[in-house]
Amino acid sequence: MTNTFAGTSKTQNLVMTAMMTAFTAICAVISVPLPFSPVPVSLATLAVLICGGLIGPKYGSLSQIVYLLLGAIGVPIFHNFTGGMGILLGPTGGFLFGYIFMAFVFGLLTEIVLKSKRTRFVESSPTAATSQIKLTVFIFLAAVFATITCYIPGLLWFMIVTGNGIGAAASMAVLPFIPVDLFKCIVAALLVRRLRPHLIAHF
Questions:
Q1: 42 beta partners
Q2: CATH 3.10.450.50 fits domain 10-201
Q3: Can you list the alpha helix ranges (DSSP code H) found in the chain?
Q4: Confidence band (pLDDT; 50, 70, 90) for 126?
Q5: Distance from C-alpha of 150 to C-alpha of 135, rounded to nearest angstrom
Q6: Cα 158 vs. chain centroid, distance in angstroms?
Q7: Is the pTM of this model over 0.70?
Q8: Residues 70-99: pLDDT tens digits?
Q9: What's the 3-state SS for 150-179?
Q10: Domain map of the chain by residue range?
Q11: Helix (H, G, I), strand (E, B) or coil at 118
Q12: Under 8 Å between Cβ of 96 and 46
């Protein structure tokens, strides 16, 4: 896979990767525990989407691998300032590993959407405003699909660790989070659509 942006050096991409790892860590520790679930509400998944959307699938997923490695060795960058292998092997571990897939899928789909913008969205739209709305909608749908790729390993691992069936596991670890995650997808789509062109312009 090529560099994130044409004309950027590997060093610049790695700097962006480090920045996105730090951004994920900051958002992850901002979390709210829930009384009915070991899975907290946090801004981590929003950060993951933004990472993939802004720096692409290769470096976006790499930022999450680095994030997990730092957390695994004990750096307190998981929810509620926790860290260590115990968290990765606990009920939320599947969701944490899902961040890698989430960033990769959203980054890849965003690149596909943006590369297709000129031929499919802009030229077929009567106004620039309409084309931007269409573009945002497609990026939002990409974010939703990417979120599902995080749900799947998260739910499966939650079932294994807790011993719950799929219904009980989903009611604790997935279903309550869907409204919030849909809102995060909207925010991510809006931010990526606005920020990515400026990011490209400065690299």
A1: 31
A2: no
A3: 10-29, 44-72, 85-88, 93-116, 128-162, 166-173, 178-201
A4: low
A5: 23
A6: 19
A7: yes
A8: 999 999 999 999 999 999 999 999 999 999
A9: HHHHHHHHHHHHHCCCHHHHHHHHCHHHHH
A10: 10-201
A11: helix
A12: no
